[in-house]
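dumping the sequnces here before i forget
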Amino acid sequence: MTDLGHFAYWITIFLMVAGLYVVIARGNLIKKLIGLGIFQTSVYLLYIAPGKLVGGTAPIIAEGFSVYSNPVPHVLILTAIVVGVATLALGLAIVVRIREAYGTIEEDEVLRSDEDEPRRGGE
Amino acid sequence: MISTHLPALQVIVPLMAAPLIVLLRSGRAAWLIAAAVSAASLACALGLLARARAEGIVSYALGNWPPPWGIEYRVDAVNAFVLVLVGLIATIVVPFGRASVADEVPAEKRYLFYAMLCLCLAGLNGIAITGDAFNLFVFLEISSLSSYVLIALGRDRRALVASFQYLIMGTIGATFIVIGVGLLYLQTGTLNMADIAARIDEARETRPVLAALAFLTVGICLKLALFPLHMWLPNAYTYAPSVVTAFLAATATKVSVYVLLRFWFTIFGQSLVFERLPMPEIFLALSVLAMFVASGIAIYQRNLKRMLAYSSVGQIGYMTLGISLANVSGLTGSVVHLFNHGVTKGAMFVFAAGIAASARTVDLDRLSGLAKRMPLTCAGLVIGGFSLIGVPATAGFITKWYLVLAGLERGSLILAALPAASSLIAIAYMWRFVETVYMRDPHPGLADVKEAPLSLLIGGWLLIAICIYVGVDSAWTVEAAQRAAERLLVGVQG
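..and the predicted 3d for all of it:
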C-alpha cells in the first residue's frame, strides 16, 4: 500500500532517470534536448505532487473547509517552467546555428569535422 | 535612504539595464550603460560590505513581504565579499574590454552582447545576495542562460558546440540543484535559507535530507567545475569572446563556490556534512586531483586560453581544498582565493584578449618571440603567472600561505606540502609560455604586430596592480575573508 501511495514519486524518478539517460546516451543534439526536457519536467512533478492533499481545497478560508492544499509549489514550478522553456528555446537556437555551421546535428560528426579541419590558428 | 535599498539595487540596476540596452539598439550607448551599471554594482557591493561589517547581517525583505514568506535578501560578511569581487571584475573588464569586443563581436550584435553581459551580472549578483533557496536557482539560470549566449557569440564555430555542451551540463547541474531544494522544501516546508537551517535539525538524519545534500553538492560542483565535472569549462573558456572569458573565469565559478559554502555551512551545517558524512575526504581527494591532474593537462595545451582554462580548473582545487579542511585558516584561504584568483585570472584573460586582438591568434606555436612585439602584455601575463604559482608579493602567495597553515593546523605535513607541490606544475606551464614568447625568435606571422590596444593594457595592468597590492598588503582581503570564514563556521547561530 505504501509503495502504491508513493506512485507519484516512482513516476518522477522514472522520468528523471529516463531523461538523464537520453541526454547522455543519444548523439543527436535534438534528442539530447528532448531528454533534457523530460529530465526537467520530472522535477515539476516532484514539486507539484506533494502540494496536493486528498480532499484539500484552495487555501481560501471559508465555512466547511479545513484541509487546504499548498499553492506555493505551483507558483515555484510556474517559474521553473519558464526557465525550462527559455533553456529549450536557447538550446534549439544553438542547434540551428550548429546545423548552419557544420551541416549536421549528430554530435560525433560535429566533433569529427573539427578534428579533420586543418588548424586555423587558436581563435 | 538609498543605503536601506542597496540589496535590491544590487540586482535591479543590471537587470533593468539589459532591456534598456536592447531598446536603445546602439553599441556605443550599450557599452556606456554596461560600464556605468558595473560601476554602480561595485558601489552597491562596497556599501553593503560596510553595512555588513557594521551590522553583522543585513536583511532586506523584497517587496516588503517579511521573511520567511517573502523573498529575503540577506547579506553577511561572506556574500558581501563575493559581491565586491563580481563588481570589481565587471568594473574593470567591461569598460576596458571594449576594444576586444569591437574586434570579436560583429557591430550589429554588440548591443545584444552588452545586454547579455548585464543580465549575467544581475544573475551573479542575485545568486550571491539572495537568502531564498529557490530564488537562488532562478538567478543561477539567469546568469547561466546569458553566459551560454555570450559563449556562443565567439567567432569560431566551435564556440557553438562549447556553448551547447555547457548548456547541457549547466542545465543538468541547475536541475540537480532544484531537486535538492525541492527535497529540502518537502522536509522543512520553507525556502528561506535561514529558516531551513533552523528547521533542518529535526529532519537531519532523514533520507530526503541526505539525498538533497547529494543532489545539491553534485549540481553545484558541476557549476563550479570541480574536477572531474569540469569538462564543459576548457572549451567554453577557449572559444568564448575573450572579454566573456575574462569576466566568467573571474566571477562565475567563484560565485558557485560561494553557493557551495552557503549550502554546506549555513544550511546543512558542519556536523552533518563534515562529521557524519565522508564529504571532506571525497573533496580532499578531488581537490588534490584537480590541483595536480588539471594543472598537469595545462602543460600540454598549445592554445593560451585553453592553458589558462585548465589552470583555472586546477586553481578551483585550491578553493575546494580549503573547504574540505574546514578550519578557520582553510576557509580563509578558500575565500581569499576567490578574490585572489578572480583578480589574477581576470588579468591574464584580459591580456589574452589583447593578444587575440593584436596578434590575431592565441596559439602558442604562433606566438614565439611575442615579447619583442608586445612587451607590456607579456610582462603582465608573467606576473599573473607568478601569482598562479604563488610567488611571494603576489596574491597567490597569500592563498598558499593560508592553505599550508590549514594543513599544519590539521597536523599533517602532507596536507601542508600539497599546495606547495602543485605550484611546481604551475611553474611548468608558465615556463612554457615564458620560453615561447621570450626565448624564441619571432614567428614570421608576427612581423607587423603591435602592442595590444591601450584600453586592454590599462585594464589588465589595473588587475595586476590589485593582484600585487593584495599580495603585499593583504590586510583588507584577509581580514574580510577571515570574517567570512568565522561567519561560516558559526553556521546557524549567526
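Strands of chain B lie at 58-61, 72-75.
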